[in-house]
Amino acid sequence: MSTGSNNPFSLKVPSTAPAVPGGLLPCKYKTGRTLGAGAYSIVKEATNIETNEKFAAKVINKKMMEKREYMVKNEIMILKKVSNGHPNILRLYDYFETVHNLYLITELATGGELFDRICQKGSFYETDAAELVRTITSAVKYLHDNNIVHRDLKPENLLYRSKDEDSNLLIADFGLSKIFDVEQYSVLMTTCGTPEYMAPEVFRRSGYGKPVDIWAIGVITYFMLCGYTPFSRNSSVQVMNAILTNDFTFHEKYWDHVSETAKDFIRQCLNDDPSKRPTAEQALEHPFLKKAVTKPAVPAPETTPATPPKDLLPGVRENFNARKRLRKAINVVRAMNTFRDL
């Protein structure tokens, strides 16, 4: 860990820590297999040498982040503020730097991504989706209550803490998150995020705030109920145009057994006017999220409903697997480029 005063990251070092030649501290983590890769970083499994505990290490290349150091500082500040306050938010345990890299040590989420878990299930009903959306919305409410906008909510950033059946779902990756100064309030102007989950006001650069996370919740809910996103198109330009014109529909093949209540929730979240979208608190009061979340039981013959709940998993799995194959090919190219640069 560097202690140089000219270091743009300016991370403090405990004065009692043993020094080694070159003004650096010995690293107490050993990195292992790669878990993922981004534009400026890779995520590796890390083991604490002293305790043998497993963590995830986000390794950020300082040279590639030159003049963007504020993004790393911001992510650390966000995680320090919220990572221990809600059971569905990834925890930050440590952060330090070496000559070339900055390391963020977070809890190791071993349960896999949200949609991978869904596709591994034996069945998936609308009520299951409602419970998951409720969990995500609750965590977003906590962020918004702390004046934080995530800005990059998407299924890839929703991870399970463990493989246990009752494991918590976690919101991860706060690299694009932003704290609002409530005393010097100003709307955000930067265009950032993943296009298919970005709200129209982001593309318009008209200023935006917390409602962008509600929009993303609407996209995730839609995705969860059918396996594809509402604005899925062949190119980023077409995606942007579809979002700007609010061009989405509920295709009968995959939506004929989804309730009007669920569709109404999605429509409210995907309102083109951010001021008309519900807040996270209001979203939690919507009937879609308030209904009892129970697995559909097989009723007695005399009480069998005319339209029993439909298992949505076959359609979700079919659409998601096609999307996953494309994403895997893109990630391979991205990882190769990142490793080359690092």
UniProtKB/TrEMBL annotation:
Start-end of Low complexity biased regions: 295-305
GO cellular component: cytoplasm; nucleus
Keywords of this entry: ATP-binding, Kinase, Nucleotide-binding, Serine/threonine-protein kinase, Transferase
GO biological-process terms attached to the record: cellular response to oxidative stress; signal transduction
Transmembrane annotation, as ranges: none
Annotated segments matching region Disordered: 295-315
PROSITE patterns noted in UniProt: PROTEIN_KINASE_ATP, PROTEIN_KINASE_DOM, PROTEIN_KINASE_ST
InterPro entries (alphabetical): Kinase-like_dom_sf, Prot_kinase_dom, Protein_kinase_ATP_BS, Ser/Thr_kinase_AS
GO molecular function: ATP binding; calcium/calmodulin-dependent protein kinase activity; calmodulin binding
Keyword Transferase assigned: yes
UniProt: ATP binding residues: K58
Any matching Pfam family: Pkinase
Protein kinase domain residues: 29-289
Family recorded in the similarity comment: Belongs to the protein kinase superfamily.
Entry-linked PANTHER family: SERINE/THREONINE-PROTEIN KINASE (PTHR24347)
Protein name: CAMK/CAMK1 protein kinase Cmk1
Source species of the chain: Schizosaccharomyces japonicus (strain yFS275 / FY16936)
Highest classification ranks of the organism: Eukaryota, Fungi, Dikarya, Ascomycota, Taphrinomycotina
